[in-house]
C-alpha cells in the first residue's frame, strides 16, 4: 500500500507541510492518530503545521485511498491511519492501542454478499471499521483481570 501512495502522490502538487504529514503517517503505519496527535508529533520533529493543513492533508490522502479514517466509537476525535495492504477494504481497529489492521477474509466477503442478496443492503467496505481488541491487548486485559 505504501508504494501505491507514493505513486499516487508523485505527480501532484504538494507543499512541504503536506509532505511532512505523509512522512509522519509513513512513520506510524498501522497506528491511528488524531489530528492533534499528528500536530504534536510534527512539532516534536521541529515541523510546524497547522491543524487545518493536517486535516486537509489527511482528507486528501483518505480520498486517494492512502489513509483510512477511523471514527472514534465514543464520539471523540476521528483517528487517521496509513494501513499497508488495506486495498480500500474493511479494517479492524483496536479500542485499546489504536492499531489498525486490514482484513482480507473470504468469510467477510461471503457475509457482504449475503447482506446484499438477502437483505438488499450494499455494504460500503471502503468505510467499514470493526472495533474490538487486538490479540496483544486481549492478552494484557486478561492478565490484568
Question: Mind explaining what this structure looks like?
Answer:
It is a single chain. The chain has 145 residues and is α+β, with helices and mostly antiparallel strands. It has a single domain, classed as Winged helix-like DNA-binding domain superfamily/Winged helix DNA-binding domain (Arc Repressor Mutant, subunit A, Orthogonal Bundle), CATH 1.10.10. It is 47% helix and 12% strand. The protein contains six helices and five strands. Strands 4-3-5 form a three-stranded mixed sheet, with no helix packed on it. α2 (16-27) crosses α4. It starts with a helix and ends with a helix.
- Structure class: alpha+beta
- CATH arch. level architecture: Orthogonal Bundle
Radius of gyration, CA atoms, in whole angstroms: 17 Å
CATH superfamily: Winged helix-like DNA-binding domain superfamily/Winged helix DNA-binding domain
Q: Could you list the spans in which at least 5 consecutive residues all have pLDDT below 50?
A: none
According to DSSP, the number of beta strands is 5
CATH topology: Arc Repressor Mutant, subunit A
Number of domains: 1
CATH top-level class: Mainly Alpha
N-to-C order of helices and strands: HHHHEEEEHEH
Strand content: 5-15%
Helix content: 40-55%
Tally of helical segments? 6
Largest sheet: 3 strands, mixed
Distance between the termini: 38 Å
The overall pLDDT average reads 86
The spatial strand order of the largest sheet comes to 4-3-5
Categorize the overall geometry: globular
